[in-house]
Amino acid sequence: MKICIATPEQVYNEFSYGVPDVSAIRNYMRFLYEAENNFNYLLLIGDGSYDNRTLPPDNAYYILTYQTKNSIRDSGSSYTSDDFFGLLNSGEGENRFDNLTGFLDIAVGRFPVKNENEMEGILNKLKNYLNNTETMGDWRNKICFVADDGSDSDNHTIEHTRDANHLANMLDTTYNLNIEKIYLASNSQISSSAGETSPETNQSIKDCMNKGSLIMNYFGHGNPSSWTDERILNINEINAWKNSYRLPFFITATCEFGRFDDKKTNSAGELVLLNPEGGAIAAWTTTRVVSAIYNFNLVKKFYENIFNIDTITGDYPTIGEAIKIAKNKSGGISESNKRCFALMGDPALRLAYPKYKIITKSINKKSVSEIPDTIKAFSKVTINGEILDNNNLKMYNFNGIVYPTVFDKKVNMTTIYGITGKPPDFTTLDYTLQNNILYKGKATVKNGEFNFSFIVPKDISYKIGKGKISYYANSDVENIDARGSFNNFIISGTEDLENLDYEGPEIKLFMNDINFIDGGMTNENPELLVFLNDENGINTTGNGIGHDISAVLDENTAETIALNEYYEGDLDTYKSGILKYKFNDLEEGVHQISLKAWDIFNNSSHEYLDFIVAKSNEMVLKNVFNYPNPFKDETIFSFQHNQNISELLDVKIYIYSLNGQLVETINSEISQQSNGKIIWKGENSNGDKLKNGIYIYKVEVYNEKGQISIETKKLVILR
Hints:
There is one protein chain. Helix 8 crosses helix 9. Strands 16, 17, 19, 20, 23, 24, 25, 27 and 28 form a nine-stranded mixed β-sheet that branches. A six-stranded mixed β-sheet has the order 6-5-9-13-14-15, sandwiched between helices. The protein has a five-stranded mixed β-sheet with strand order 31-38-37-33-34, with no helix packed on it. The chain is built from ten helices and 45 strands. It folds into four domains: 229 residues, Rossmann fold; 139 residues, Macroglobulin (MG2) domain (Immunoglobulin-like, Sandwich); 108 residues, Immunoglobulin-like (Sandwich); 97 residues, Immunoglobulin-like (Sandwich). It is an alpha+beta fold.
């Protein structure tokens, strides 16, 4: 891609006699559009203001904004729109009704940054999103829809949930994506003097961000600081996100969430992009008040284009292209509505949607082209599949790992709308969910082929219907991935059994890493690690009452955490696997986690883990020791700490004789997400073995802030 960079001052000098003028930027775009055959994108790097006359003169990170003239007469219908810079043909632009009209000729996006630090944060996120293999995962198969239940002002309309559900069903049917539905009307709410809240919905959104989704799409009421009257998403939550390896594209069909032209404050929509440790990779959001009916049509047209692959180039559209097409196909009385949607992000960015295909070839050695067998509870199922390129040819050079998720049948749900919630004032909406997992694991892909097996749990839904297999795969040598799904198979009934199992699964619990010791220390945001093992597999369906993999923190059973979807089987086996769950903002002090898990026969096991939270703003060490002690050939220095996972710790260990002479210095760097573990062979820097006896050692640990923590212990060499 050919790139041209220009400062606002350069543009003003060439197109407005050196006078700052928003039209100069548009005229420059028109000049490039007429001179270049492949001029497609404009990225504005800088924040804006509704008052172009008072931009900070010493800050180059502000760019003039287009403001409609009707703001003078009617503030309720005024808006700012970066579309002004993309309407480049003759006769396009502002019409006699003070609205922008015409077809976008280029895609426009903006980084609403005020300084270099904010710009660096966005660039780091983009580099990570595009190049870091750690960002690859089956979250790229999922879209999360969040819907408001309306407000008193609109009689708690069904419209927002209906719109979200319509698009969710379209994407499920057309592209077989995995859909997560977070509908406020279906979740519990709490009344207080401050109004209604829904902690359940807030937590669901937080969980979705942590687990990851390709797109996060919201329909409903909003403002520059939150979603819904219940504030199911707010600025404090946005700033706390740390999902840098799973960044969604945000679509917010709500009012003013992305109002970027108030220089005194950042809107929530801006902060979604500006969060350097998480948030979104880009956000298509709104600068002013918008209308639900027009929002739906605009977003629908976006989805009709974003997943259509170019058969010649093999690429999907960029987000800017898809937005440009959606806006150009939306017109008429919704003209001003679509202009209020602004892209905060790079318009030339492509979503991290896998390019290649995964297909199912056979189930239990029977080709899927034949009439499928019924999959029954307790039956062992073996599935074979292949990775295909865009010409539907097997990719013999694809070697890596495939991550299959087998879902039970869809579940029918109903939610109720209306102020009173009683006839005749309420309305119902029926929708479906398909999120009960029969098996989730991973299998080796060799020369484009793979197979995996699992045993179907007892807790299936026994109503006859179709299940679904969702696939994600990534290559182990190239930054390429693939996706696919299959749903032409029936789940119902029970297999005859010869041998029964009466023992629950084996459970091992840790915090942050496997070196954690029961009663050890963490920071306020620890990650729970759960290792499960059972001869017949783990139950993750969520169908049976009380049969979830569940965790209880500090005996608070009222807030039991269901962990089914966090479990993933180990490579090439259904008998064991791992579960990871991130806690946030735990209080300082002693805590206990209780975990319960079930096998496919519904045998359960319990395990407990105690841990101490110490806030990470001051570094603290705990459980500093070496083992074995005494030792002969080598010993391992170990300690626990309370620091975050995004940095490195600098560790120095000084070994002294009993008379105080320094005999050896050990230098090491360790990741803060793991507890310290350093091996020493009892030698000095020359490789000479130290004599038998007692030695004093001092452990000094430094973090990147320059904070230090020191502990002193004794060791014994006995050869």
